[in-house]
Amino acid sequence: MRVLVTGGAGYIGSHTVLALLANDIDVLVLDNFSNSYPQVLKRLEHLSEKKVPYVEGDILDVPFLEKVFAEHEIDAVIHFAGFKAVGESVEKPLKYYNNNITGTINLLEVMAKANVKNIVFSSSATVYGMTNPVPFKEEMPTSATNPYGYTKVVIERMINDVAASDPEWTVTNLRYFNPIGADKSGDIGELPSGIPNNLMPYITQVAIKKRDHLSVFGDDYDTPDGTGVRDYIHVVDLANGHVQALEKNMAEKGSKTYNLGTGKGVSVLDLVHTFEAVNGVKIPYEIVDRRPGDIATCYADVTKAKEELGWEAELSLEDMVRDSWNWQQKNPNGYEDSSDGSSN
Ligand code: NAD
Ligand code: UFG
Fold this sequence. Notes:
Elements: E1 2-6, H1 11-22, E2 26-31, H2 39-48, E3 54-56, H3 62-71, E4 76-79, H4 86-91, H5 93-113, E5 118-124, H6 147-165, E6 170-176, E7 178-180, H7 199-207, E8 214-217, E9 229-230, E10 232-234, H8 235-251, E11 254-260, E12 266-267, H9 268-279, E13 285-288, H10 303-309, H11 317-330
Parallel strand pairs: 1-2, 1-4, 2-3, 4-5, 5-6, 6-11, 7-10, 8-13
Antiparallel strand pairs: 9-12
């Protein structure tokens, strides 16, 4: 089986490529490197000891997509390609609607023409919106508070509608909670451009002294220590969840939706203190105002993925903070330093 992995050079895509290869599933990476580096592919080859074929191009480019499907034997698609910065999506909504939604429409149309009707899509816990009670369950109503989130709500709906219109389609929406961590090797990981929006990359940049302190966005939430609670999941567990979801997707027609999280809530200060204890590094922080749009608590009900996919997160919070720090330390300047297969 060969899987087209759109956005396969990105943070979650690269770890998923490694997991697919480890399970003897062939891949074809498609990426325009708008938020990643071609060096990732060299590192994936080094880590997997396999060739990682790729095509450079944009899912907004329909003739390019048609050529990819005409020239390669493809059985299914795992679709990561998209923009993901919530704040930027508020400032540049059309950039997000165009890349994420138009890009997905193009992909679905070209897939249908090529008779490749299997897709696994990267959705997000953000589709649970502001009002559902935790733990979030797949059948709860979806909504969004920013353009990025709306793209996920709309794409899930679009993919489900396509499956409903044609029984040959098999589709899976995976709702990721908060992926952090990196492959044990420290050779691939998350590389935010500019000032990180997300907590973990901000912490590692404080740890490496790129930034002098962390701003903790609010300590007056209705949570055990007043700071925001999230369901952090190791990116390697998340990547393995894709392999299970793909196998289920190939075996069963129709549309499915799964939460991929650990089911455990961790506060900002829990994460900071675990990072400090495991890695022996101090993280200076300051409490500041809440960040607009943040909810107090977000964690998954993981029963459905466990029962139907036979998948469950295995790695601990300690593994997550250790592997994030290892990646940051080995790659203080990201992928820029090397063009070979390793970060050493
Ligand atoms: P990422 O930015 O590291 O990876 C996305 C990849 O897609 C990048 O390599 C980028 O170059 C590529 N890309 C973007 N637009 C493209 C286009 N038009 N054509 C071809 N390639 C394109 O992001 P990630 O963290 O790996 O996230 C992957 C997916 O998971 C995204 O759809 C994201 O919205 C979703 N997601 C991420 C998180 C998270 O916290 N990281 C949480 C929930 C959902
Ligand atoms: N936080 C800080 N300081 C920071 C960054 C974050 O205190 O510098 C806090 C936030 O207020 C929140 C927690 O850390 O309580 C986690 O914040 P992140 O930005 O890391 O993650 P979010 O849960 O806000 O958002 C993430 C992704 C979104 C996705 C959402 C739900 O960034 O794309 O999870 O899946 F939509």
